[in-house]
């Protein structure tokens, strides 16, 4: 007597399970004429349509279109140029380097430099340098001003020059690793 109710319960669960799968849209009717018969073409079509998943590439690391800080010449140049100052905030994903307030000994003036990276490309509009000056009297009353001087442009130019040198060095290193490029049909001398 106990086997029949269990059998009915199991059948009901199976029917509900398949009903739920069908209702969720996992199974959809497709016309065989519209689907490619070649497996590679089917995979390509499914990827273009955003369908399916792959288990074959589990060990491969995935990344976006951005470059990591260790390979971005503009970022590396910014870190190298600003290395003389104490850093307060360094955020590669946000594209910003902010120094802490610093000054020469004995002065009541301190400056803070903010470097914003607007692009991974080495170009003049890809970097923005902001300098603030803080003047404190008696270590209690401080006034902070935005500084528009040659210092902004000098830091920006130094970063761009250094980034260009780093990029050239990296390209030269990659060229040595790849070896000589041979073009078919042309004699390489």
How would you characterize the overall build of this protein?
- With 189 residues, the protein is an alpha+beta fold.
- It folds into two domains: 3-49; 73-177, Alpha-D-Glucose-1,6-Bisphosphate, Chain A, domain 4 (2-Layer Sandwich).
- Helix content is 38%, strand content 19%.
- Strands 1-2-3-4-5 form a five-stranded antiparallel sheet, covered by helices on one side.
- It is flat and about 95 Å long.
- The protein starts with a helix and ends in an 11-residue tail after the last helix.
The CATH topology of the largest domain:
Alpha-D-Glucose-1,6-Bisphosphate, Chain A, domain 4
Q: How would you sum up the major sheet?
A: 5 strands, antiparallel
Portion in strands: 15-25%
Q: Which spans have pLDDT < 50 for at least 5 consecutive residues?
A: 62-67
Please tally the β strands and state the result: 5
- Over the alpha carbons, how many angstroms does the gyration radius reach? 31 Å
**What is the ordering of alpha helices and beta strands?**
HHHEEEEEH
Q: Which CATH architecture of the largest domain would you pick?
A: 2-Layer Sandwich
Mean of residue pLDDT values: 79
Number of helices: 4
| Share of helical residues | 25-40%
The number of distinct structural domains comes to 2
Just give the CATH class of the largest domain.
Answer: Alpha Beta
Termini, distance in Å? 92 Å
Category by helix and strand content:
alpha+beta
**Overall morphology:** flat
Widest sheet: strand ordering: 1-2-3-4-5
């Amino acid at each position: 007597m106990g086997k029949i109710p269990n059998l009915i319960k199991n059948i009901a669960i199976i029917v509900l399970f398949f009903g739920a799968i069908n209702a969720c849209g996992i199974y959809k009717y497709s016309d065989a004429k519209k689907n490619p018969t070649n497996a590679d073409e089917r995979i390509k079509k499914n990827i273009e349509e955003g369908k399916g998943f792959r288990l074959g590439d589990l060990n491969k690391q995935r990344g976006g279109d951005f470059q990591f800080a260790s390979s971005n010449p503009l970022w590396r140049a910014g870190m190298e140029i600003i290395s003389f100052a104490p850093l307060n905030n360094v955020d590669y994903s946000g594209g910003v380097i902010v120094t802490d307030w610093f000054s020469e000994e004995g002065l009541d003036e301190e400056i803070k430099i903010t470097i914003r990276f607007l692009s991974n490309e080495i170009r003049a509009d890809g970097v923005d340098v902001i300098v603030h000056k803080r003047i404190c009297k008696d270590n209690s009353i401080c006034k902070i001003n935005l500084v528009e001087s040659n210092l902004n442009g000098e830091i920006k130019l130094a970063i761009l020059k250094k980034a260009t040198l780093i990029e050239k060095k990296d390209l030269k290193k990659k060229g040595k690793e790849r070896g000589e490029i041979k073009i078919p049909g042309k004699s390489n001398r």
